[in-house]
Amino acid sequence: MADAVGTIEAEKSRDIRKRWLLSLPALLIILIAATGPLLIVVVYSFLTPGPYGDVVWTPSIDGWINVALQKDIFDDTLSLADAHISIFLRSTVLSLVTTVLTLLVGFPTAYFIATRPQSTRELWLLLITIPFWTNLLIRTFAILEIIRNDGLINGLLLKFDLIAKPIQMLFTDGAILTGMVYVYLPLMVLPLYASMEKLDFRLVEAGYDLYATPFKVLRRIIIPLVKPGIIAGSILVFIPALGAYVTPSILGGGKNLMLGNLIELQFGQGRNWPLGSALSISLMLIVMVALLFYVRNAGSQETRHG
Amino acid sequence: MKRMTATIAMTAALLASTGLARAEGVLNIYNWGNYTSPEMIKKFEDKYKVKVTITDYDSNDTALAKVRQGGSGFDMVVPSQNYIPIWISEGLLLETDPGKMENFKNVAKEWANPDFDPGRKYTVPWAMGIVGTVVNTDVYKGDINTWGIIFDTPDELKGKVNVVPEMTDVIDAAVLYNGGKKCTGDLTILKKVRDTLLKAKPNWVAMEYGTIEKMGSGDFAASSDWNGSAFRQRLKNPAIKFGYPKEGFVNWSDNLSVLKAAKNVENAKLFQNFMMDPENAGMNSGFHRYANGIAGSDKYMPADMKGAPEINIPAEFASVGVPSMTCPPEVQALYTKIWTELQK
Amino acid sequence: MASFSVRRQRGFTTIALLCFAALYLPIAVLVFYSFNAGESLASFDGLSLRWFAKAFENQQVIDASIRSLQIASVAAVVATIAATMAALATTRTEPYRGLTVKYAFINQPLMIPEIVTAVALLIFFARIKIWTGYSGLGYLIAAHTAFCIPFAYLPIRARLENMDLTLEKAAADLYATPWNAFRYVTLPLLWPGILAGFMLAFVISLDDVVITEFVKSAGQDTLPTYMLGQIRRSITPEMNAISTLFLGLSICVVTVFFIVNRNRA
Known about the structure:
The complex is a heterotrimer of chains A (306), B (344) and C (265).
Chain A: H1 2-44, E1 48-49, E2 55-56, H2 62-68, E3 69-71, E4 78-80, H3 82-114, H4 118-129, H5 136-147, H6 152-159, H7 173-196, H8 201-209, H9 214-225, H10 227-242, H11 246-252, H12 259-267, H13 273-302
Antiparallel strand pairs in A: 1-2, 3-4
Helix pairs in contact in A: 2-13, 3-7, 3-10, 5-7, 5-11, 7-10, 7-11, 8-9, 10-13, 12-13
Chain B: H1 2-22, E1 25-32, H2 38-48, E2 50-57, H3 60-69, E3 76-77, H4 84-89, E4 123-136, H5 148-151, E5 161-163, H6 167-177, H7 187-200, E6 204-206, H8 211-217, E7 222-226, H9 227-236, E8 240-243, E9 249-258, H10 265-275, H11 278-288, E10 321-323, H12 329-342
Helix pairs in contact in B: 6-7, 7-12, 8-9
Chain C: H1 12-33, H2 50-57, H3 59-90, H4 99-111, H5 114-132, H6 138-161, H7 165-173, H8 178-207, H9 210-215, H10 223-231, H11 237-264
């Protein structure tokens, strides 16, 4: 009896060891090219800015203080760094809205691809990725071409006398969102598709057999089953969108800083590397907490599988 | 199968080796994007049998940060004059003494002994320009030679003004507009600067670099901009004119220098000398459309550049120009705070 | 009975098709303007091939494009392999010690703003460059692989989570070795996820600007960093021509891939 238990234990630990070995390459690469350097950033956030960029190796927590508090430029009063906070809020809201929009557009699209006959399915998949083989900057400029005052849309509307003056679409928040959704759509569609492709439609059929409406089937059967895909897609869109600043500046006119711009400024003309480092670590910590929370939620589903 | 791979490998090696045999030397230049005439480089390559690579950067700070860390592999770099003192004081540049080179006699008198590199021990002028205003005179017929276009926008231009987001340029302009001196740390002036900027911003439609394209298409009717850029815009639309702000404007220059860590020092020196030849400087200017500091290069520039009002500063404004220079770190920090405040 | 499809959802097909149309509209515009005889991107002045000619003459652009493709291919392949292994290791299991940490670790490149990674890598690699004297494409490839891994990992993992373990158990019952079970059962089932992951990784690497800008050494411009340099000056339809060529190339590659796959199946 003890013997049988022993073997199960042994098998379990062998399994765990195997899993650690399997994940080794990924972990190593990331350690060298992502985490290791990150530690440098953490160290830098506790140093003093050099006079012309870079750092001086004197410890200081000014970088961290300046993330949340600032001295007013002219009367030296200490107050909340509302510039930083409003920039952070702006990026977060933009990110959230982009994620929601890509989900709304991406879900039917992924579903459509997943329900094509086997022979054409990969073709549709490739069709959706091909636009993204063109460079991001060029794609953003192409959108700009379409929505600007003498662009495609306004041109057509004017030609058919539907409007008298061009509609100002460029440099608005709507323009930014259009660009962001356009850029991040495949990041939502591909994981969703990967999840949906394996969907067992017998379960859906069972739903209909029980007199459910298509909407109920969607809500109660399909969505819960593709939840891993939804989560993966949302993460893949939300987080990079949070750091996005190229597309928002091209389509939004660049009058307002995004989080990425703010950090870049510190490593550039702002010449305050410790502040830039502290800002990035803060951002990262907040995102990590949100991510872990999300994963715990999804993780509880895992053990029920197979 | 194995024999085929071997043959392919050998052929590849053969081809590669022939390529190597031809170039006798290499030169790695680190420069601003779209700033080097390919024709001129080819001339240099053919004359000295050197293979030149050009890698781009888009800001002085990026270039400085990269080179400072070391190991970048570049031989030459072209920083702006207000950064040169930083490069020199950090020991990043090699003292190649262009002031003693053969072609140095061609350098224009006013650029032969600048404050940022006395006696030209390190650098050679590459290009120079100024920041001013550019206005579509079809839309606005008033005086364009003032920063008021940007900071106190006339009604016809409201909502159609762009400001190029170069922090130093914009704040310098606001400082000069409020009667201050460049790099001032005077808090009263800076307070006025902040207020001016915040008041002006609602009249701006964008803060971006694409002026040539957007002034041409009518998305912008006015902008703060570099003179070379204004020149290109006028060629597309003659109604677009460059304004020299009477409150003051900044003269900048970019200068070719050799890195201390350079591996191809001889080739680099040859190139510095090469760039002081009027014919080569003129050819380069024809490409990037800015003035250079070499006397006599005019006759080698394309016809449309000679006598162009953007390139040749009219006499009445010559004294209003202020040279670009490095601001002390505390002042830079104040400027950054104002800039963040402006763009939050 | 025959006309009711279990798979149909109201409005989904319309949205999907509109989505495809909207996706290709900017592409169509971009391709259209690459044939522009004029210089601007705003007004069309007639048909011409001059920008294609200019792009082919531009040695810098050609070098940059080839380099982009080289880096993206290697990075995407390595990242996908590593991500597949990692996904197998972290899914369909009872939570074991270190699982959450591993998950966070693998996704960590995603969470850091690119500029931070870029500066950190600049400092880090610079030291190594001075030590070893090696300054080839290796650094760029390593950097790209690192941030491609999470992009490949998430779709593969999503796919894996939905897969039924019973098939692999059945294979084991039939005395298949773990490797054979993997090769003949898991891999084919997982393939759509792996493909999705690879394509995502490839595209992400091809597009990267910020990290490449900081990590690159002399003569190592990629296409996006080259274009970044151009933005400050002026954008001409030459960029469009290059993109059109790239597009054409990728369509060709993809078609070939497709045909080859068909024949194997």
